[in-house]
């Protein structure tokens, strides 16, 4: 079958496509984070992405801290059965947000890009240092982050 008459759009410069690393890398060019819309093409883009990822990881620790504070505050307050049910629904919703947040961070880690992984790890370290309680609780951690 002759396909010479079919119009194919110009693929353009393939250097601008997202690369999907299957192995650990320190490359910055053509790294896509979570979607093709977050496309890192320059060192400056990588720097900005590292800052955003650091802050995202840092504030994930803050989110966990505030969620645990909320649960503790609700556990010591006296409530009616109806308000306990609403509190449980609210906690479940917040937990779902926490899981979604952690899975999005996991997807960033799965780029296998060393700069992004380092930024996320440092954000988690600084966030944990700032917001963790003095008690050593392993239950506050989520497996994916």
From TrEMBL:
Membrane topology: Multi-pass membrane protein
Pfam families noted in UniProt: Ctr
Position of the signal peptide: none
Keyword hit for Membrane: yes
Main location: membrane
Alphabetically ordered keywords of this record: Copper, Copper transport, Ion transport, Membrane, Transmembrane, Transmembrane helix, Transport
Localization per Swiss-Prot or TrEMBL: Membrane
GO cellular component terms given for this protein: fungal-type vacuole membrane
GO molecular function: copper ion transmembrane transporter activity
UniProt xrefs under InterPro entries: Cop_transporter
Record field: transmembrane: 44-63, 93-112
Family of the protein in this entry: Belongs to the copper transporter (Ctr) (TC 1.A.56) family. SLC31A subfamily.
Name this polypeptide is given: Copper transport protein
Organism: Hanseniaspora opuntiae
Lineage of the species this protein comes from: Eukaryota, Fungi, Dikarya, Ascomycota, Saccharomycotina
């Amino acid at each position: 079958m002759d396909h010479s008459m079919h119009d194919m759009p110009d693929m353009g410069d393939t250097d601008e496509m997202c690369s999907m690393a299957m192995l650990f890398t320190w490359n910055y060019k053509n790294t896509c984070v979570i979607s093709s819309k977050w496309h890192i093409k320059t060192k400056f883009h990588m720097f900005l992405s590292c800052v955003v990822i650091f802050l995202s990881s840092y504030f994930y620790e803050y989110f966990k801290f505030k969620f645990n504070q909320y649960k503790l505050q609700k556990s010591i307050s006296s409530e009616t059965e109806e308000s306990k049910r609403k509190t449980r629904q609210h906690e479940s919703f917040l937990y779902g947000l926490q899981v979604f947040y952690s899975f999005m961070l996991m997807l960033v880690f799965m780029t296998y890009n060393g700069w992004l992984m380092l930024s996320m790890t440092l954000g988690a370290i600084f966030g944990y240092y700032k917001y963790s309680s003095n008690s050593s609780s392993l239950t506050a951690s989520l497996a994916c982050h």
